[in-house]
Write the structure tokens for this entry.
Amino acid sequence: MKKFRFQWGAFLMFVVFGGLFFILFGRILFIQMTGQVDGKELAKIASNQYEKHAVLQANRGAIVDRNDEPIASDTLSYNVVAVLNEAASKNSKRKYHVVDYKGTAKVLAKYLPLKEREIYDKMKNAREGTWQIEFGRAGKDLNRETMMKMKEELDRKKLSGVLFVEGKKRFYPNGRFASYLVGFAQKEEMENNLTITKGKMGLEKTYNKQLTGVDGKVNYQSDGWGYLLPTASKQIEEPQDGQTIKLTLDKTISNFVEEAMDQVEEEYSPKKMLVLVSNPKTGEILAMSQRPTFNPMTREGLTENWLNDAVEQTIEPGSPMKMFTLAAAVEEDKWEPDDYFRSGSYRIYDRVIRDVNVKGWGTITFMEGLQRSSNVGMAYLLERIGDQKFIEYVHKFGFGKKTGIDLPNEASGVVLDNYPAERLTTSYGQGSTVTPLQMIQAASAIANNGVMMKPYVIDQIIDPNTNEVLENHEPEESGTPISAATAKEVREILATTVTSEKGTAQKYHLENYAVGGKTGTAELPKTDGKGYMSGYGNYLYSFLGMAPIDDPQLLIYVTVQQPKLKAGEQGSDPVSRVFNPIMENSLKYLNIAPDDEQLIPVKKVGDYEGVDSETAASLAAEDGFQTVLIGEGGKVTKQIPKADTKLTEDSMILLETKGDTTFPDMTGWSKKMVLSFMNLSKLDIRINGEGYVVGQSVTEGTSVNKNDPVVVELRTPRQQYNKKKSNEDKEENEEEQIMGG
């Protein structure tokens, strides 16, 4: 029998490994019981490793005009990336990195605002090991058209390694359109390396919170390589797009404004210009623009002035202020148009007030004084009204306080009434200051039978995710400074400034519509504040006018500062070249009957809502109207125009019913009618051009649903004439060639 020998080595190994086993067992038991390692939860670590998420980017809210035409919106854009690392093409027959630096640089230089050498050096001199590079601002925010051209040329020349990363950018399709009102938004990099679009100016900044959407995301589980696990489920949080801001602006009227201002800017190079167009019956601002201006896409033209002059800047109004002095006199029964006064000069204490021509026109009537825009006439009229009573009217008309428009940083202006001389100069528009917006608001009382309407520019704020209207702005009265009878009489007097041979507003005469208003030639304060500027053209020329004068539908205020006038020209020349085409074209666009057609009989539209469509069409036909049916028929749910609207014979009425729509022949329709049809039918109608319909992509009688895009081609009368003339000339040339041959 062998003697047992104790093995110390084996014992030590047993103790060590046994101890390690019990430590490991205890650790595992602890982890199972607590679910933690070093104070960190294992479930969370695993979740972070295997649960992934992708961001679903929300759209920034759109800014649209009153007819839902886009003014600012998000659109797809592309960033150019050049992959330089050869590892991108490892184990692949196809190359995924840039191989031909020179060829690639040559192609990119054709489409990017960079020189070929710059692009080549940027790729060639990249730090060793760099995976990919970008090309700064020059390679960002490319539109799809440019991207596709680049991609096609690169593919054709078999140049590899250039990627186009899809993103979004803010798009302003109308260029310089109302830029100081709309403003701009641009991308901004956050601390977490995410990029957001943020409003920097105008409505984009004021309503940035409402316009900013909330990104969504997709959560899913992946393996260690990032691939989606076959048994994993995806959880999607849908993005919430930013709210839609619907303006009172009318894109067509605004385009008339921009075109007229561009022409005058090119011809006269004024230091500043401003135009406001409003509906005096509602206070809606239909157009608002100024010069200098800028392109919100590129910021080209943007100077140190970021102010919306119509709202944030004050001016001395000059003679347009006289229409409110006149209104006060008529309301107080102090206006005697055939009474006489001595023009030329008027003394108040130690101060002498003079007319624009210094010597005056001798002894003239108050009516002639108003037509000639006599400052002295206003002084004598003020004696009759009483200067304190006059200042009461100045405040009733809203001067000296903010209008309350839905825009930021509105100025209030200053009404000077400490001394009799200040009250006198205020009567003809010097000394006291106003905003252009206040002038439009005050004049609405004259245009709207004594009722002054508060101006506003935001029509609705809509949640595009639910189509819920979050805010709905309605017309709002801001006082009744004068009676309807006074307003009518003042309009008739203002019309004589255009029609009288002595009137200062003769250049504002329109062939088709009667205009009334008041011209202005305001002195400009010197930069040092000591007195006023002098010299030919160193004035603020203006016109505040309305039409048709019997029942004004539009109110337009135009200012042109320091234009470069030619010899013999007056300040009314550039101002009328802005005002006249805007007023004439806008009234025609709104289907306002010209004066020579006022005698054409009109009838009121009936109330067809809730009536069977066949019955409604029959009733409308009895009144001499045409009808266009939207939907399959049945009860009428909505109509355009609304009941009681006055229309001439053969005018068209849109009747909305349920179901798919049979597309009509739109030839000859105005853009406004097409937009009304589009809004009622909710069809995807894509309008190309301005003016009247000359063609459409579907034939009359085709059944169309909301998923079928329809293109409608419009041309202005001038374009149609030019097209016809071009075709005639072409035919003549062909005939001559045949005869000659």
About this structure: The chain has four domains: 13-49, 54-247, 251-595, 602-719. The chain is about 30% helix and 25% strand. The first strand starts at residue 36 and ends at 37.
